[in-house]
Hints:
This protein is mainly alpha-helical. The chain is built from five helices and three strands, in the order βββααααα. It has helices spanning 27-35, 40-47, 51-63, 65-99, 107-123; strands at 2-3, 11-14, 17-20. Helix 2 (40-47) packs across helix 3. The longest helix has 35 residues, at 65-99. The model has no long low-confidence stretch (mean pLDDT 89).
Amino acid sequence: MTLASNEQAQIIRTEGGLTIALTRITLYDVMDYLTAGYPAKLIREKLCLSDHQVEVALSYIDAHRAEVEAEYQEVLQIAEDNRQYWEERNREHFARLAAMSPKPGKETLRAKLQAWKDRLEFTV
Length: 124
């Protein structure tokens, strides 16, 4: 780990990128919430951070906006590439699973599962 800032070693660079010290929370996690329009208080609650940690993260992002934004875009692109790779790789497998006929004797279980799915779709 190397320090990425003189801010009392609060933001560090790890293998995962710019990270809030003593956590596994990256600045890219914070950026996800900022991009979605979350206020600082809600970011703190969602990521289980202290007020100080959120303040340091937001200050670092503001002070190094171009660098953090460029790395964030790279992270988003890598995540999208990974999603596409696994979606393509598993497409045939999921198609085979969907084409399989249900095992006999599991009708009651399947009906309960479908009822739960229907209920979840209705509430969303």
